[in-house]
Amino acid sequence: MAEELSYVLVTPHSIRKSRTGGILSRLISRTALDLVAGRIFTPSAELVTEYANRIVTADDPGHREIQERIRQYVLENFTPTPESTPRVLMLVFKGEQAVAKIREAVGHILHERTSGETIRDTFGDFITDAHGTITYFEPAAIAAQNAASAKADLLLWAQHSDTEGGVMDSAITYPPGQSVEKTLVLIKPDNFRGPNTRPGGVMDVFSRSGLYIVGFKVHRMSVAQAEQFYGPVLEVLMDKLQGRSGEQARKVLEAEFGLSLTEETQEKLGKLLGPINGRENWEQIVKFMAGRKPSECPAELRNAPGTEKCIALVYQGVDAVRKTRDVLGPTDPAKAPSGTIRREFGQTIMVNAAHASDAPEAAQREMAIIQIAENNFKTIVESWYSR
Asked: Could you list the active site residues?
């Protein structure tokens, strides 16, 4: 069976209520589809109107009333006003029967269903009064109705994605005088080992920071990008591992040859082996993020997208760097406090679930390296339908 592309639009209400992680968890774990792209939009009135007018279709008369209600919801809640600039998150998935699987995971929004089985059961609302009149309506997420509408909708949003999507850091208004920062978070490749709830779970914990998501990108880090991203770590590791390398080498040599080595010899061994050990550890970090060690990567593949996937998020708000670092926890999961991401999701010092920039300057540097504003959403959608 042929693969399809399909999408989910996470509504402005769901984003404001920090439900994005929960929605993502349901989509990945329930569908087993491949998340291939994502982009934050602040859609124009033109885009909203054109998209909304596609929602009511002639081929599904059984749900015409709901379609009309969703169309009206989109017009009312996605359109910018002088008072607000709504943020919408477009998630793109690939796989067999992608449209049907996503529609099943999103679910219908009927007031008599309260099982929590689907995204709309859990995060949506359909409330009526005694006369059956809808008094409150929140769909939580919107999905394509069929493969044809998925194609048309994705191409429409791709057409607007350069000017109305990306890092939308002007969407949030702050009181005068507040020192607002942007910081980068990476949900690392260890969270994508098969379909599971981990990527959304990590996002859920970051939501405790009270910050705003203003950028979202599904990224495959190249070896060259990983080398540059983790470049400052190399020298630290080469220096830091001298003591441990010398101590371990001394123990091995004394046991193997029956020698008794001096502290001076141990220090010399550390100076010799520390840089070697440090570089090997650093290469393993690059491999973890990009899929290849630099020393084993052919020159022609250094700048190619890697085999490992991560999600890059830009969070914005007052004291954003400290808040994300506090929620993240220390590098070593064993030393991280309960409730932090690395304690809950990390395994080792390297396989530790997520990264967060440690300073505003580092965030700017890291965002530039992974090209956070790059519109790979448009590239993926348009190349898929031009095949």
From this structure: 355
Residue 115 has a pLDDT of 65
Q: And the tokens for 220?
A: 């495959």
Tell me if 210 sits within 8 A of 311, measured CB to CB: no
State the total domains in the chain: 2
Q: Decide: helix, strand or coil at residue 80.
A: coil
**Element (H or E) spanning 9, and its range?**
strand 3-10
14 and 118 in a common domain:
yes
- DSSP character string of 112-163: T--S--SHHHHH-EEEE-TTS-EEEEE-SEEE-SSHHHHHHHHHHHHHHHHH
- Under the banding of pLDDT at 50, 70 and 90, the label for residue 378 is very high
Q: Is residue 358 part of a domain?
A: no
Within a domain: 332: no
> Residue with structure tokens 């441990």?
244
CATH number at residue 153: 3.30.70.141
Cα(22)–Cα(89) distance, rounded to whole angstroms?
Answer: 14
Over residues 255-263, mean pLDDT: 92
Q: Assign 3-state DSSP to the chain and report helix, strand, coil percentages, each to 5.
A: 50, 15, 30
Report if residue 312 sits inside a domain: no
**159 and 84 in one domain?**
yes
User: Which range marks the domain in which residue 234 is found?
Assistant: 226-301
Same domain as 111, residue 254: no
Give the three-class secondary structure for 303. coil
Tens-digit pLDDT profile for residues 77-90: 999 999 999 999 99
157 and 90 housed in the same domain: yes
Q: Residues 160, 270: one domain?
A: no
Q: Which of 294, 316, 295 is nearest to 221 (CA)?
A: 294
Rounded to whole angstroms, the Cα distance separating 234 from 228 reads 10
The closest of 147, 152, 160, 164 to 54, measured between CA atoms, is 152
Query: Which residue from 84, 25, 51, 81 is spatially nearest to 311, judged by alpha carbons?
Result: 25
Q: Are residues 25 and 130 in the same domain?
A: yes
In a domain, residue 307? The reply is no
Cα dist. 325→186, 238, 289, 331 in Å?
Answer: 12, 25, 20, 10
The distance of Cα 100 from the centroid of its chain, to the nearest Å, equals 23
